[in-house]
Amino acid sequence: MAFTVNYNLKKPELDEQYDIAHQNGNWDIIDTQLGLLNSDVLSKLNLSGGVVTGTLYVGSESKIKLEASTGDIYSNGKIMATQAWVQSNDKLPDIVTFGTSGCKIDCTTGMFRIRGLPGQSSIVARGDNATIEFYLGDATIAQHVFRRDGTKAGGSIKIDGKTLGMSPIDSPRIQIQDVIRGVKATLGGTKVTFDKNFTKSIEDYSVFPSHPVKIKNKTKDGFTVVGVGKVDLQIIGDRVGCKKVYWQEMPSKEV
Fold this sequence. Notes:
By secondary structure, the protein is mostly beta strands. The protein has 4 domains: about 1-45; about 50-85, no CATH class; about 95-165, no CATH class; about 175-240, no CATH class. Helices cover about 15% and strands about 40% of the residues. It contains 3 helices and 23 strands. The strands form 7 sheets. Strands 9-10-11-12-13-14-15 form a 7-stranded antiparallel β-sheet, with no helix packed on it. Strands 5-6-7-8 form a 4-stranded antiparallel β-sheet. A 3-stranded antiparallel β-sheet has the order 18-23-20. A hairpin with a 2-residue loop joins strand 21 and strand 22. The two termini are about 70 Å apart.
């Protein structure tokens, strides 16, 4: 006589006589197990016509729980959302905190704030003056500000303990620039070679010397300076792939 692995059902050998008691015993085991399965499913899902009418657990009972009778959702025993909250015009609370680190989204006082660690970096979209402000490493003073008229304080510097904002240079073109100082110009010509990364970052360029010299033999990676004395050189190049860009249309509506 052999037996099945899971429920120990009897499996007569070919040379054994048929015994109805063995067959009935197998059916009794099968019937019992199906009854337990049906009872367990109903007790966990509380199904009524395919609809959960009681409590639905995801994982173990200590993890995620959906209370069908109230619409409340729990995680690790703590309520995450109530039916009234979910059905309240699809609105979230003014402050939503993520995890245990203190990171949050704060929408109080008509502003939208994405906050990092408490007292550290955050991004604020202000409703009172229509600006977007970046606070990086210091929650008391903004380092970058973008205004609705298109102007911006896109950089900052701390002088004598006070953070001062600066405006980056606006241009209809997309450019990258560098300054090479103290080049000794000669009448025979002095070769100036760009940094390798700068060479790869631009397509075409112009050179602006601090005093009159001649710029000759322009190549992708540099040029020759002809003249007398030391000279500073400003190089402005079109960013690679952007040479034909001249003014850009801004999005016409929020997506």
